[in-house]
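Saturday, quiet lab. Running sequence design on the structure tokens for the scaffold JK sent over.
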């Protein structure tokens, strides 16, 4: 049932591997809970969005009661963008960067089209990602929200969360961080950085499984004043009173919308539990060591053959994947697949190799880079 052990899997940053415990947990949820308890299982399923959120919280430096799991990253991102715009009436600009993940850019574009807000685009360095100075250059008193990915999905550049958040706050704006390539991979401290809002997926480094629901974070002090644009019954005070009017819960629960996908949520719980058990500092240390090995091999083997390292050189400023630029990146990636090495390709020319520290072995990094070398030498 598990992948061929000889497979070199360097794509855990797109879909993390299946943890052993997840099979049993899903089987239990299916057979004992759904099969046996039926509707009675909702007595405990109903807490899952909060309990899984509380399990994620320490991995991103968040306090208990500030994270819930439900909906997709895209939907959560939309909810928090609108909540932030509503919390800054009179301001009409959103700052983001052109290198941000497509769904984030598209949601911002859609809001701009509907809500008479404007987008202030940052054109950041494609390798180093958006810098504090790039953000400072577009901030003024009209900016309601700054939203960026903490780790770039292309180059893996890590943004300076503390400095950028401080700059935005000095200008009176809120900040929403997308942690999809951060949680379970790099150290994140939302509390110390005084971040307002965050979202992220559970199916990448958190190994939650395909389409597992995403998390959202709202700093405690904002919870009573901010509101989701989706007034669903899961965000309602005393949802089973089925009252006539929507009265949002006083806490993080108000950002829930509707019934969560329980099977996917228990899978996310197991993936998150595994990351929590290993500890984020050990995970980050191994991730950096994997990345440094990959950079050294790329310099020695691939650069002389016409490839370029298209990620930051400083391991502290690089997340857990490496982008390698080559004019025939697409062809190389396809040929690697044929040889049992799974990476991915991002246009126009990037081969992306992901190192998911819980699962990726040093030999996989070695074999993956050797495969690229052999393809380039023909
Ligand atoms: C993977 C990823 C997403 C995915 O969003 P979905 O709604 O789960 O499809 C969003 N943002 C970033 C930065 C990502 O890397």
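Result came back. Writing it out in full:
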């Amino acid at each position: 049932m598990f992948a061929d052990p000889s497979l070199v899997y360097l794509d855990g940053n797109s879909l993390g591997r299946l943890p052993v415990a997840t099979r049993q947990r899903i089987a239990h949820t299916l057979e004992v809970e759904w099969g046996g308890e039926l509707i009675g299982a909702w007595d405990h399923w109903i807490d899952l969005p909060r309990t899984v959120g509380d399990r994620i919280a320490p991995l991103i430096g968040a306090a208990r009661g500030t994270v819930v799991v439900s909906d997709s990253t895209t939907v959560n991102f939309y909810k928090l963008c609108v909540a932030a715009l509503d919390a800054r009436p009179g301001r009409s600009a959103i700052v983001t960067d052109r290198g941000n993940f497509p769904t984030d850019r598209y949601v911002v574009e859609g809001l701009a089209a509907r809500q008479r807000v404007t987008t202030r685009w940052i054109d950041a360095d494609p390798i180093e990602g958006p810098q504090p100075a790039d953000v400072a250059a577009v901030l003024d008193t009209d900016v309601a929200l700054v939203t960026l990915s903490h780790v770039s999905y292309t180059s893996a550049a890590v943004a300076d969360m503390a400095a950028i958040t401080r700059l935005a706050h000095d200008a009176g704006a809120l900040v929403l961080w997308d942690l999809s390539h951060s949680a379970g991979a790099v150290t994140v401290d939302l509390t110390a950085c005084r971040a307002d809002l965050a979202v992220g997926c559970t199916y990448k480094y958190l190994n939650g499984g395909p389409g597992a629901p995403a998390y959202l974070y709202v700093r405690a002090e904002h919870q009573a004043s901010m509101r989701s644009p989706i007034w669903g019954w899961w965000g309602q005070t005393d949802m089973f009173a089925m009252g006539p009017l929507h009265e949002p819960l006083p806490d993080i629960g108000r950002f829930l919308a509707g019934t969560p996908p329980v099977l996917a949520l228990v899978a996310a719980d197991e993936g998150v539990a595994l990351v929590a058990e290993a500890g984020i500092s050990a995970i980050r240390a191994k991730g950096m060591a994997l990345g440094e090995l990959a950079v050294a091999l790329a310099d020695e083997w691939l650069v002389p053959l016409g490839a370029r390292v298209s990620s930051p050189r400083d391991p502290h400023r690089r997340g857990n994947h490496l982008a390698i630029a080559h004019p025939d990146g697409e062809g190389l990636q396809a040929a690697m697949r044929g040889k049992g090495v799974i990476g991915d390709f991002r246009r126009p020319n990037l081969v992306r190799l992901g190192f998911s520290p819980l699962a990726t072995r040093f030999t996989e990094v070695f074999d993956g880079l050797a495969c690229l070398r052999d393809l380039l030498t023909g």
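Notes for JK: The mean pLDDT is 97. The CA atoms of residues 299 and 309 lie 8 Å apart. Ask whether to fix the surface positions before the next round.
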